[in-house]
Amino acid sequence: MTPTHLPGQVAIPDQTRGTSSPLGHFNTAPADDAHSTLLTCLHSLRWAQRLADHRPYPDLESLLAASDEAAYDLTAADLSEALAGETLPELPDGTYSAAHTALSAAHAAYEARFGHAFVISVDHLPPNEVLDQVLAGIRSRLTNDPEEERVVAAEELRRLARGRLVTHLRGAGL
């Protein structure tokens, strides 16, 4: 049977189109599922809630722009919450034990000075450069005053969240 088209009727686009993509699944997932996924990217309840509440996103770039904006708007308490959920980046397999010792000592000094985990985005680096960058980053940032370091840490958290979102959605096939 052919549908009858009457004057004044408007075709309604299929709203399910695109939900087979990872972004489509994210956009249509139950709020609790989206919120849980977002918390794996950045450990801030406010950031995750904001991104989940503003779904759907038309494309990955829009989601990343919203992520950046929400990260820039984090309060000091939100930053503390997000930093409390962070750990040091994983070192590449085969990193010698002296490097682990040096990294542990530098991280302990950093935590003693600033009261939170050292965060740095190393997604863009080849595995053989991660250790050097993390150690150099800790050493140079230990000279920051606490307010300056809070700004740097917030920027690193924003980068981490962005990279984790991309990894999550691309890992799911986007």
Shape: globular
| Low-pLDDT sequence parts | 1-18
Helicity range? 55-70%
Rounded radius of gyration (Å): 21 Å
> Which sequence of SSEs, written as H and E, runs from N to C?
HHHHHHHH
Distance between the termini: 37 Å
Main beta-sheet annotation: none
Overall mean pLDDT: 86
Number of strands: 0
How much strand content do the residues show?
A: under 5%
Alpha-beta content class: mainly alpha
How many helix segments?
A: 8
Polypeptide structure, described:
The protein has 174 residues and is mostly helical. The protein has a domain at 86-151. It has eight helices and no strands. The protein has helices at residues 22-28, 31-41, 45-53, 60-72, 76-84, 97-114, 127-141, 146-171. Helix 4 (60-72) runs antiparallel to helix 8 and helix 6 (97-114) packs parallel to helix 7. The radius of gyration is 21 Å and the shape is globular. Mean pLDDT is 86; it is low at 1-18.
Structure characteristics:
174 residues, mainly alpha, 8 helices, disordered N terminus
